[in-house]
Design goal:
DNA-binding; alpha+beta; DNA-binding transcription factor activity; two-stranded antiparallel ribbon; about 15% strand; single chain; Arc Repressor Mutant, subunit A; cytoplasm; repressor; globular; FUR; 5 helices; 2 domains
Length: about 140
């Protein structure tokens, strides 16, 4: 049994072809922070006959099961990434939409200190930093 099949069974989801194909695609590093529409197009390019509604349904099921995380960056559309064991934050370019994952111990420590100062026990958090790329690779679309 593949790791993907085990992840599905562990999440209480039946192993179906659409679920397996979507999970396989999402395991590629180039497919992190991907929208349902982009995932659907990639499936079409691979010759998979999985409808857009099915892609949305599977991603929602994966989100509910904790297999993927849903993010709503400034683009207004949801993007998905596989849930990871390590916490990370995101830098997002408002021009080209590029997303960079990063981890910083100082930021993490400071967030914990602030929460303690206000008598809050953190159970989860997310940090999104927005800006514009300063390199020539960015398409510098309308921001």
């Amino acid at each position: 049994m593949t790791d993907g099949n085990q992840a599905l069974k562990k999440a209480g989801l039946k192993v179906t072809l659409p679920r397996v194909k979507i999970l396989e695609l999402m395991q590629g590093p180039e497919n992190q922070h991907i929208s349902a529409e982009e995932l659907y197009k990639k499936l079409l390019d691979l010759g998979e006959e999985i409808g857009l509604a099915t892609v949305y349904r599977v991603l929602n099921q994966f989100d509910d099961a904790g297999i993927v995380s849903r993010h709503h960056f400034e683009s207004g559309k949801a993007v998905f990434e596989l849930s990871s064991q390590h916490h990370h934050d995101h830098l997002v370019c408002l021009s080209c939409g590029k997303v960079i994952e990063f981890s910083d111990d100082v930021i993490e420590r400071r967030q914990d200190e602030i929460a303690m100062k206000h008598n809050i026990k953190l159970t989860n958090h997310s940090l999104y930093l927005y800006g514009v790329c300063t390199n020539d690779e960015c398409d510098h679309g309308e921001a």
